[in-house]
Amino acid sequence: MKHGARNSVKAKVKSIKKGDIMSLIKFEVMLPADMASVITTESVEELGIKVGDEVKLAIKAVHVLPYKD
Amino acid sequence: MKHGARNSVKAKVKSIKKGDIMSLIKFEVMLPADMASVITTESVEELGIKVGDEVKLAIKAVHVLPYKD
Amino acid sequence: MKHGARNSVKAKVKSIKKGDIMSLIKFEVMLPADMASVITTESVEELGIKVGDEVKLAIKAVHVLPYKD
Amino acid sequence: MKHGARNSVKAKVKSIKKGDIMSLIKFEVMLPADMASVITTESVEELGIKVGDEVKLAIKAVHVLPYKD
Amino acid sequence: MKHGARNSVKAKVKSIKKGDIMSLIKFEVMLPADMASVITTESVEELGIKVGDEVKLAIKAVHVLPYKD
Amino acid sequence: MKHGARNSVKAKVKSIKKGDIMSLIKFEVMLPADMASVITTESVEELGIKVGDEVKLAIKAVHVLPYKD
């Protein structure tokens, strides 16, 4: 499918832990993978981020939406 | 830093496009990378997802938080 | 109340399933209903979306906030 | 496509307003439409929500992901 | 209004910066203020968080919804 | 750590309630605390918000990310 999210990462399911309402699924990311972030321009400046920098990307698991084409 | 998000992905900044309020940053993910998702148990069942499946992960860019240790 | 979200959908509660920490509530949407989405301009272009198109809107249940006036 | 979000609402595009980084898209929801919300069980109790109640659902536009099958 | 979010913080508007599509609003929080977070139980354990600890709470500005009663 | 979120609130852990998959943590916010919100410019105008106004900020607990420096 075509969707309006900037990030579409291929991944293999490693484990599934089912709870009463919510479940936790773990994945191994398959390469190549690119990602994108939208933050305020103020934050870009305060973070002092520039091309070539190595950073980390924190993403809460509730924001990750698995899908099958 | 230690944080309460399941996903902490190493990445290199490839481009930064600054707008008036929001900016878009693109990254190349560095390996190895694992990810996690929390969805409803109902969705796990309807999606019919199981260990070993290859899926895709959609993540809106506004949910990706870059940080530096 | 007046709030700063673009989407304010009238709905009737159909079921409530309570879990230890989180609960899942289901609703029937009442008409008329309009919705709005904010995505990157890049995504608008890649998705090739235009006025009159029929699309689907995916929304994770954790992002839906019920309220009473 | 099959995805792991509880909400998949059919909608017709009414307008698109493009900005430098982000764009705002408006939709008319097509019937029938059901929605789901996940909130804390504490909130269910404090809100005093029960089957048959009419409520409103606030959703920030940044959490709405349009897609085409 | 009564809503289904755990966090309802009183605040005074300090500044508003309007952009083409999105705007950035800054607030001074008024006391007393309590907040709540829902994270995976796994993250609670890895973070080693316990009652009395001083931590910081990161919240992306797009997740903060101002409203008037 | 330095991160790309506008909100970084100091807080003390008051309680932790662990569930099967998700846990709920409560905090007391420590002063001084400032917060920021990004909403659509349309919402700013409809909400009629201006400098000096007292408002409330609704934030779903799943969007609050605790971390330790």
Explain what the structure shows.
The structure is a homohexamer of 69-residue chains. The first copy, chain A, is mainly β and 69 residues long. Chain A has one domain (11-63). Chain A contains one helix and six strands. In chain A, strands 2-3 form a two-stranded antiparallel ribbon. The radius of gyration of chain A is 15 Å and the shape is extended. The mean pLDDT of chain A is 95. Chains E and F meet through strand 2, strand 3, strand 4, helix 1 and strand 5 of E and strand 2, strand 3, strand 4, helix 1 and strand 5 of F.
Keyphrases for this structure?
two-stranded antiparallel sheet, 1 helix, about 55% strand, mainly beta, about 10% helix, 6 strands, homohexamer, about 70 residues
Structural class of chain A: mainly beta
Classify the beta-strand content of chain A into a percent band. over 45%
Q: Please give the alpha-carbon distance between the first and last residues of chain A.
A: 5 Å
* Biggest interface: E-F, 62 and 62 residues
Shape of chain A, please? extended
List the helices and strands and how they pair.
The structure is a homohexamer of 69-residue chains.
Chain A: E1 2-3, E2 7-18, E3 22-29, E4 34-40, H1 41-47, E5 54-59, E6 65-68
Antiparallel strand pairs in A: 2-3
Would you kindly provide a brief summary of this structure?
6 copies of one chain form a homohexamer. Chain A contains 1 helix and 6 strands; from the N terminus they run ββββαββ.
